[in-house]
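Dear support,

Our group has been running a series of protein-ligand predictions, and this particular one with heme C is the one our PI (initials K.S.) wants archived with full inputs and outputs. We had some confusion internally about which version of the output was final, so please treat the block below as the authoritative record. The input we submitted was:
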Amino acid sequence: MKTAISRIAFGAAFASLVLAAGPAIMAHGDVTPQAVDTSDLPDIGEEWLTENPYRGHERAIQIGTSAYTQNCARCHGIDAISGGIAPDLRYLEPGAEGDEWYMERYRHGAVRDGKVYMPAFDEVLGQKAGWAIRAYLETKYTED
Ligand code: HEC
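Confirmed final output from the archive:
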């Protein structure tokens, strides 16, 4: 229920954004976040966790792979290999130490001087999808 409501809220926010920005935003192509079905994953409550509850969880990795491809790959690259637009997420620190920074960016995005470098995903995709994507990214981890 919660996800349905936030999806509607996002839809409305997105619609007004499109109306305000007009053709400029439409010209950028696929910017609509794609809903992620996380109903298969164990519930983790409402509180945002600081450590990935789905690390190594097979189903979470599957869901995270498709969620990443639909929502992150256009900036961070197919298969998590950056084309240079945005940081290469294969280098994110693995384990609990890296979880915190990952979630900081996932939830709040990156905005500087009023420019959105990365949109916030907390309301849009929610916590379960966020950790599923993190579980996927850890399978791609590469050392510097
Ligand atoms: C519109 C492009 C865009 C999209 C879409 C996007 N990001 Fe980003 N992301 C960026 C940029 C640009 C940065 C670097 C921000 C900065 O300059 O501080 C970034 C930074 C990050 C970082 C921090 C990386 C580091 O090395 O510090 C993480 C983690 C991250 N993004 C995760 C995600 C995830 C997960 C998704 C999909 C749910 C996503 N991003 C979608 C553009 C994007």
